[in-house]
Amino acid sequence: MLQEQVKRGIKILKEGGIVAFPTDTVYGLGADAFNPKAVGRIYEVKKRPRHLPLPLLIADISQMTVVAQPPPGIALFLARRFWPGGLTLVLPKAASLPLYLTKSPTVAVRVPNHWVCLTLIQCLEKPIIGTSANLSGKPSILTADEVKQQLGGKVDFIIDGGQCSGGRESTIVDVRGEVPVILRQGIIPKREIEESYKEYCEAKRQCVLL
Question: Rounded distance, CA 117 to CA 115, Å?
């Protein structure tokens, strides 16, 4: 049963292992974000260049300040609009965030809309790495079988949750300033981000008028 697979995945994450799992976008490859050895293994398994930061998955908006500085207004507006869901926000990283996670001044964060990965995060009680479960440069993966074919025995466990319904990676938006900048077009269309920004600006204008 899927529930038993999730329990095993939680145990492996707590022991410092790496697990592939379904999300609302594509299959993800995760580990305890605060376990440097496990994070290093993800880079090795994916053959991902070390200078490229890994995105993080959190359980809810309240966990943003664990990994990022207090977010600007537009970041909170978009988070409340699209989380849980297929939006990854690029934020100024928290000063306490380890260098092995990101040497850049930013961190990419998302709250997924899938009970499997949310359960993993909640039971681990920490953010987890949420990179796509494929070799670096290869297309994203939508099934557990594809993960097995591409990553083989390099992953400690693969949670088979069937085919991911999203079918596309998340949309990445830089929200360090007041104007959101789309860095990668994904499952959330550009027009929805733009419309949300207009609503945000109008809400701010109304507050000023009041």
Answer: 6
Query: Of 2, 173, 4, whose CA–CA distance to 78 is shortest?
Result: 173
Helices (H) and strands (E) in the chain, counts: 7, 10
Whether the CB-CB separation of 94 and 197 falls below 8 Å is answered with no
Cα–Cα distance measured from residue 196 to residue 18, given in angstroms and rounded to the nearest whole number:
36
Vertex 55: Cα angle to 51 and 56 (nearest 5): 135
Task: Give 174-210 pLDDT, tens digit per residue.
Answer: 999 889 999 999 999 999 999 999 999 998 888 765 4
Peptide bond into 84 cis (omega under 30): yes
Q: Using the 8-state DSSP alphabet, how is residue 103 labeled?
A: S
**CA–CA distance from 176 to each of 70, 76, 93 (Å)?**
10, 11, 10
Residue ranges in the chain assigned as alpha helix (H): 2-14, 36-46, 64-67, 73-82, 115-124, 144-151, 190-209
The CATH fold of domain 2-209: DHBP synthase (3.90.870)
Alpha-carbon separation of residue 109 from 53, 91, 198, 200 (angstroms): 11, 8, 23, 20
Residues of the chain scoring pLDDT < 50: 210
Q: In 3D, which of 192, 147, 156, 144 has the Cα closest to residue 31? A: 156
- What does pTM read for this prediction? 0.95
